[in-house]
Amino acid sequence: ATIEPSAGKSYTAKYDHIVVAAGSVSRTFPIPGVADEAIGMKSIEEAIAVRDRIIDNFAKAANLPKGKERDRLLTVTVIGGGFAGIETFAELRSLATAMLRQYPELTIDDTKFHMVEAMSRVMPEVSLKTSLWVLRNLASRGAVVHLDTQLKSAKGGLVELSNGMKFESDLIVWTAGVMANPVVNSMGLPVEERGRVRSSATLQVTNADGTVVTGAWAAGDDSAVPDLTGNGVGGMCVPNAQHAVRQAKRLAKNLVAVLRGENPVDYIHKNLGAVAGLGVGHGVFQSGKFAVTGFPAWLMHRGYHGLAMPMWERKFRVVGGWIMQFLVGRDTTTLSLREHPQSYFQAYASRPAK
After folding, report:
1. For residues 152 and 35, is the Cβ–Cβ distance under 8 A?
2. What secondary structure does DSSP assign to 256-294, as a single string?
3. Left if phi > 0, otherwise alpha if psi is -120 to 50, otherwise beta: which for 55?
4. How distant, in Å, are the alpha carbons of 97, 132, 251, 276, 337 from that of 299?
5. Among 92-101, 192-201, 343-352, the least confident range
6. Rounded-to-integer distance, Cα 111 and Cα 96, Å
7. Which of 144-148, 149-153, 159-163, 343-347 has the lowest mean pLDDT?
8. pLDDT tens digits, residue range 170-179?
9. Where are the alpha helices (DSSP H) in the chain?
10. Which domains occur in the chain, in start order?
């Protein structure tokens, strides 16, 4: 294999087995302005940047008179109404509502939250009844969802929708789908029509005819793994963390089994339900026809993700943070200066005389 590091020269390395777990990236469309104005929600860095942007915008808006500039700073737009989009949208709405207590100059009517969804409903993973409850919950909190609507342009932060609506938004978050990390296309491994590495249920890379590529494995969002439960989209496991984490464990066991001369085991996971957090105290859970909404669902969401967090040290830190947030409120300290950590030093640093 040829390795191309971010720094230094390329080099070759021999291997017996290779595991492809490059994940996914945001899937976008050639919509004017999206590449320059929007931000995704695929990494911790993006999530922190979104959080800091809305906190900084509130601080700026509080010092401005009512008008176009203040409206732009207080307008948030999320594109995509799947689980990632809904959770992002609702959590940002919850954060904004909490910050209003710190800025008496601002009211909830000053903030504008828009979600744009091309389909006629949000969260297709849950029932229509549950989906409608989510819409009512968001509406009661001052958030607007535009269904059957597409984004036509975001140039210069001016959002133009297919329903004719136009408004300026300083924060545009794109959550309308993901695709396999394009790096897998340069590895010389077989990929299917959607750009994912072809994989068998044992998580071994396969050719188009189903034959196994010896020593090659793939799991997670960058792989097309058959969903043996029959519930997957197109017969494949959907790209989400629940599958990725479980596939990683199965892949590790299968790789060790092959090294020992044993047969690998098929990956199979039946989804027991879907749970989403919609901001502090708000949530939704769906399992078959059984649904839970509101505060109990929010507790279920926190409990599930707390248990899913790897390592006890990390569990204590994350769950402890949730408890503190619930008891004393959100931490709204911005960390935006981390993006240019030298600026404060450079502003006052002594320089040689010319």
Report:
1. no
2. HHHHTTPPP---------EEEE-STT-EEEEETTEEEES
3. alpha
4. 20, 21, 31, 10, 34
5. 343-352
6. 8
7. 343-347
8. 999 999 988 9
9. 34-37, 44-61, 68-73, 83-99, 128-140, 241-259, 295-308, 312-328, 343-348
10. 13-23+181-259 (3.50.50.60), 25-178 (3.50.50.100), 274-327 (no CATH)
Task: Provide the pLDDT confidence category of residue 331 given band limits of 50, 70 and 90.
Answer: confident
What backbone phi and psi angles, to 5 degrees, belong to 152?
A: -100, -35
Distance CA 69, CA 77 (A): 16
Q: Which of 211, 174, 184 is nearest to 77 (CA)?
A: 174
**Rounded-to-integer distance, Cα 40 and Cα 22, Å:** 17
Angle formed at CA 58 by CA 54 and CA 59, multiple of 5 degrees: 120
C-alpha span between 117 and 149 (Å, rounded): 6
Neighbours of 176 (CB within 10 A): 25
- pLDDT(152) > 80: yes
Decide: 195 and 179 in contact? Cβ < 8 Å. yes
Structure tokens at 32: 């004017």
The rounded distance, in Å, linking the Cα atoms of 310 and 189 is 30
Model pLDDT for residues 26-37, shown as the tens digit of each residue: 999 999 999 999
Q: Is the pLDDT of residue 131 over 90?
A: yes
Can you tell me whether residue 214 is helix, strand or coil? strand
- Asked if residues 58 and 74 have their Cβ atoms less than 8 Å apart, the reply is yes
Take residue 276 and report the two structure tokens written for it: 């989403």
CA angle 150, 153, 155 (to 5 degrees): 155
pLDDT tier for residue 76 given thresholds of 50, 70 and 90: very high
What is the identity of the amino acid at 86?
I
What is the reported pTM? 0.86
